Amino acid sequence: MQIALADVSKFVKVNPTMVGEVSNPVTMDRGHVPTPDGLLSTEIFGNTTKDRSRKYGYIDLGGHYLQPIVYKNLKRLDRRIDGIISGQIKVRIDKNGTMVEDENGQCGIEFIYKNWDKIKYAKNNSSIRNERIELFDNNSKNELFTTAWVVSPAMFRDVNLQNSGSGKISYHEVNNLYSRLIRLVAMVRQDSSFITMMYNRQFMIQSTLVEIYNFYKGLIEKKNGLIRKNLLGKSVDYGARLVITTPTYNVNSYKDTDIDFYHAGVPLANCCSLFTPFILGWVKNFFRRELEVGADKYPVKNKKTGELEYIKLKDPMGYYNEERIKKMLDHFIFSYDGRFDKIILPTEDMDKNPRYMVFSGKALNASDDIKTPGTAISNRHMTLTDLFFMAAVDVCSDKYVYITRYPMTDYLGVFPIGIHVSSTHNTMPVEIHGKVYKHYPIINPNLPKSEVASEFIDTLRFQNVYLKVIGGDYDRQHCQFCAVMLNSPIG
């Protein structure tokens, strides 16, 4: 995310009706009445919720002070800055623009401001150091320094009068920092005759500005910050947040790749969650078609002889109702070790003698343009992966997802794209009921449950040409994967 320094003094001047001066460190008068020029003033911040959430205040600092982010970067370039501002270290500026300690030199924040254009810092091979220097070079003096400080709207730091009857009033913690800032500014204005004390108070003003900055910075950064909670962590109906990884190209021709310019590889589980209503409908129709028609004579293989025999099902559609299908779908999505679970047949003795659906299909040889039959796969039971993969491929064939990379800085940060259903790492071409699946998941029902999760692709993949547009990368070394949000158009 890119940020820019604001000219605070200009902000105050161009918004005279929305920004009033706060000059009183006392918040409340007797009777819990806000002071007219204080931090909770109704004259400055208004009476209504709308006004108190939109109107700002400002504190006249009575001098020039570094913007907190500038001060923090300057301190990392020169550790003597605290001593120079507080009057403990005196310096002069040599012909190269370097501040050299000198007992006959000068000090204080005003000295730094007046000589800012003369002070120079040399770049070197450190990219971080060079970025800090560029921050100084790319902004004007009025943006790097400020003579005023903005006070946030009162609604976000208002007083809690709920326990005022007992004499206990709860003040927001940031009000204490604002009050301290106002008091320090007043002290510098009232008595500047004692130079050493003045420098120390100016240093305290600079430090208080940094404290206020750090307070608000802490509200928006990291995992518990406002950005992550309200944007990246926002729950979106039929949406998913995924990490992107590079597509694989272990094929002989670009025509054989599963990921092309028009399709993104979306994990099977996420396809199921993105298009849940469609998946549920497809699976319900599948059971009706497969089980209901031949409920009296459903073919299965005998466990001992392996020969085909027929069994009678017990109310298959009553068993596989929408509630049970939804539980199966949730189990597949959230239980990684259960994705190869077999699909049971509803019979009279299913608790004692469970019987399972048999897979109906055949593998094909990809080397012969998917025409020559290969190894049969009808000799194993059907699993949840089989069921939901076929459902997802059919459902997603004519649908798109919106890929959004946060933070979205421009219109290129979101784009629609078709769907390729990604399942297991290893796939093969399969024909089922006359339909060919070029990338059907290879399923081993005998695999230990602890190893099932590692068989699946659970990251988003798309063509590398999209990376520059969204500002993403695959830098594994620095773990700078790009988190994206998928959102289906059906929500």
Task: Give structural notes.
- The chain has 18 helices and 18 strands.
- It has 491 residues and is α+β, with helices and mostly antiparallel strands.
- The chain folds into two domains: 214 residues, no CATH class; 258 residues, Beta Barrel (Barwin-like endoglucanases), CATH 2.40.40.
- The strands form six sheets. Strands 8-18-14-15-9 form a five-stranded mixed beta sheet. A four-stranded antiparallel beta sheet has the order 13-12-16-17, with helices on one face.
- Strand 16 and strand 17 form a beta hairpin.
Provide the fold topology.
Elements: H1 8-14, E1 19-21, E2 28-29, E3 33-34, H2 42-45, H3 49-54, E4 56-66, H4 68-77, H5 81-86, E5 91-93, E6 99-101, H6 109-114, H7 127-137, H8 141-144, E7 145-151, H9 173-190, H10 195-220, H11 226-232, E8 239-243, E9 263-267, H12 268-274, H13 276-292, E10 298-301, E11 308-311, H14 316-319, H15 322-334, E12 362-364, E13 373-376, H16 384-396, E14 400-405, E15 414-422, E16 427-432, E17 435-441, H17 449-452, H18 467-470, E18 483-487
Parallel strand pairs: 1-4, 9-15
Antiparallel strand pairs: 2-3, 4-7, 5-6, 8-18, 10-11, 12-13, 12-16, 14-15, 14-18, 16-17
Helix pairs in contact: 4-7, 4-10, 9-10, 12-15, 13-16
